[in-house]
Amino acid sequence: MRRTILYITAVLFLLIATGCGNNTPEAEPRDLHVAALANPINLNPLFLRDAVSAEAATLLHAPLVTTDPETLEPKPRLFASWEKKGDNLVYEFTLHEDVVWSDGTPLTAKDVAFTLRTICHPDNTGWMFPLMQYIAGAEEYRQEHEGEYADGEIDGIAVVDDLTLKIELKQAHAPFLTYLTFAPLPSHVLAETRVSELEEHPYSRTAEPGVGPYLLEKWRQDEYLHVRANPDYFLGEPQIKNIYYRVITNPEAQLIELLAGKLDMIPTAVKVEDIHTLATDPEIRIQQNPRLVYDYIGMNISDEDSVLSDKKVRTALSMLLDKEGLVENLLLGYGEPLHGPLLPLHFAYDEDFIVFEENLPAARNLLLESGNGSLDLTLIVNAGNVVRENAALIFKEQAAKIGVDVTVKLLEWEAFLAAYREGDYDLVALGRGADADPDLTFHWHSESAGNTLGYKNEKVDQLLEEGAASVDKESRSEIYRRAQQIIVEDAPIIWLYSRQAVHAVSKDLTSFTPHPEMLFYNVHEWHWPIREDN
Questions:
Q1: Rounded Cα–Cα distance for residues 217 and 492 (Å)
Q2: Which one-letter DSSP state was computed for residue 305?
Q3: What is the rounded distance in angstroms from the CA atom of residue 64 to the CA atom of residue 163?
């Protein structure tokens, strides 16, 4: 009798513990683990100076405008719609009406106007003003505004009502909509902060409050960013509730973690030599897409006393590499050889454009004509980017054949950025993002803050101004191709290749849509299959 009572008690305990009847335990939601090669530096959308920070920030911010992943045409995001008026000089934007910051405050046109004033403020330490200088009154505000805060007015910016913002340009500027692919700042939190202090403000570490698909839960330096789904995201609460953006600086370590099931995604820069192995793993899916990014070897031409100020020297260095061979041998075909700043995704791209090809005898002759029978140059490379490291070593080998001794210095990311910003190099192997629009102004106009190499050519300036003022694609294509010809002949950098993004993804991850400009384009739609537990 005692054994029977004990047996019944045990059965009742199990029924209570596991649920009665036909109910099944609720499956635990699955988190997503994504690899990153470096630490983000800043999460404020106005101060994103490196690719990792920009990638992480897209989890936490929603842009005003985005671009179509296939056509690159501007598409609404926080702006629900817009209308062009007055010969393309006036844009009237309407915000989605159901967007709220994570502290419950509605997003309004005042936030956008505040953000634009911040960008244009004379004390702003960010890089975005060259994109906004086309707004009527923006330059005057930057030159004349005396307050420490982003207050006052800019003539070309008018808040019509809570959801409507009007922007007037001082001249027609075709790429303008593609410049609005940034996120607004919360004016109710930051309006009382001095603009000079915004980059170091705690908001740059928390992005709180936010209106993006995710909110920051924890940031452990050198380890991970843990973000949680924003339940009030205006496009719908993301289905994946937690994402860990994990800092794993070694590509081999990333691969081991992925194969062990501890990572769900190695994004964008899977080592090409690993692609075949990963593709044969039934638990992993390989996805690839073109990107608006290219690698190059830049030349420090800002110092007039540098040997690199001599065009003959630069031209000689531009004739050292077989770019098709680089793509075949270093990228195993996952890319395109590049001969100028217009990329294959640009509507102005010319696939037949080539100025410099590998020609060592001609390069040697040019070097002798310059009066430099031999040269010693330093080439800095960010450590861990194996493809760039190998490209640098090939360049070193080729340079030696014409009498140029190149010392390759591998630097950790932050040291690399510091050396680059301070101009402490002769040559630099780097990647550069291009805009969705083929306008080359940001990197190649002599007065642009994005022209970090100090390139100057009056004819190029004139052509870029003409191209941006035109609204006809055919005319713009011709103008940008002419500008490209001049830029490449001046040889300020050595274009290498446009590398495809190659993603290794868990086979179960659904709705991941690769985008040429951003990894987390539609992250709110990503999901794991629903588990049916018995």
A1: 44
A2: T
A3: 13
